[in-house]
Write a structure and sequence with these properties.
The structure is a homodimer of 166-residue chains. Helix content of chain A is 64%, strand content 6%. Chain A is mainly alpha-helical. Chain A has a two-stranded antiparallel sheet with strand order 1-2. Chain A is globular and about 60 Å long. Chain A binds a DNA duplex (30 and 30 nucleotides) through residues 37, 40-41, 44, 48, 53, 55-56, 70-72, 80-84, 86-88, 90-91, 103, 106-110, 166.
DNA sequence: GACCATAATGTTGATATCAACGGTTCAATG
DNA sequence: CATTGAACCGTTGATATCAACATTATGGTC
């Protein structure tokens, strides 16, 4: 009885350090956030002279298409919340790098396209990206690169939208 | 002459779609952001009933130590900017899950510790984490899991601080 | 044509992320 | 003990992220 109570109290009040280590060493979410933050900093640092963040670079690049994509298309491609995309477009729109236009075929949709200035920015940024990409590659053993990207793609939820209902 | 000019103009005004595909398929930053966003959503969805986000769970878990760590310790462990940690602690402090105390040994440092309520929250969240972790594991081929975590750790910049100078 | 379910997007509020700047404390040097 | 450089941290402003709610447009049904 007493020992049971004691163990119950202990269970309610403490969490063994071993469990913390288990989470710290294995949690996919934590590992991904760590790696994503550190890697974003690499690309951010490299792109800063151009006035672009890594996310802005990725977004601009995803707009370089023949057919201007819709918000939903891009949000899905980046595995990004739809409303996050709306927010991220604002600074780029303000700077005249991106344009939004109502789709005449379906007036609910907005078509996103690069402006001349946006394309120019991308072209300037490309060699910076190549250099940073190579630097980052050196952190990951060559033999792992392909598999790593495949695993990340799988975790990213594939090409399908992250959530249909919303 | 004419063709040279044409090619120059073309280079300045357009970016081949193939380059876009090269970036989209290979960029470590983009792949990591995608995977990190999608995975955070998994854990966020699972933890929402408890009122915790994935980041808050990771942060609380990193505070479950014998010796209360300093801000710098934790920021380094999470590969997170120091000032981001300050911001992230505020809601947890408001809810009484975390306490900050000036280190008497070095009054520049703050020691972070869990409150009773914080530990209780962690204990409640643990089975949710285990379940979500297992779900996520099913997305990554078993044979890759160990290697994936190792690569992510390498990308995360190891246990050293992300930036010394600032 | 009115009605309704669905689809695509916008808005608001809360948290997350980081650069730039500023304040305090420590430790070493003279 | 005064100075000085470094270490640790907070604040501010800008962007990023997402849930909840609201708006507008489309397509189909009656």
């Amino acid at each position: 009885m007493v020992s049971l109570l004691k163990s119950e109290m202990s269970n309610r009040r403490k969490l063994p350090v071993e469990v913390t280590h288990e989470v710290r060493d294995n949690c996919y979410c934590l590992h991904l956030q760590r790696a994503a933050r550190a890697t974003a900093r690499r690309y951010d640092d490299a792109l800063r002279p151009l006035g672009l963040t890594s996310g802005q670079f990725s977004l601009l690049m995803s707009l370089n298409r023949v057919e201007p994509p819709t918000m939903g298309d891009v949000a899905s491609l980046l595995a990004m919340d739809r409303t996050t995309l709306t927010a991220n477009l604002k600074p780029l729109e303000r700077r005249g790098l991106v344009e939004l236009a109502v789709d005449p075929e379906d007036r609910r949709s907005r078509r996103l396209s690069l402006t001349e200035a946006g394309r120019a920015q991308l072209i300037t940024a490309l060699p910076v990206w190549r250099r940073t990409q190579k630097e980052t590659e050196s952190v990951v053993p060559d033999s792992h690169a392909e598999r790593l990207r495949a695993d990340l793609t799988a975790l990213g939820g594939g090409p399908t939208p992250p959530k249909s209902p919303r």
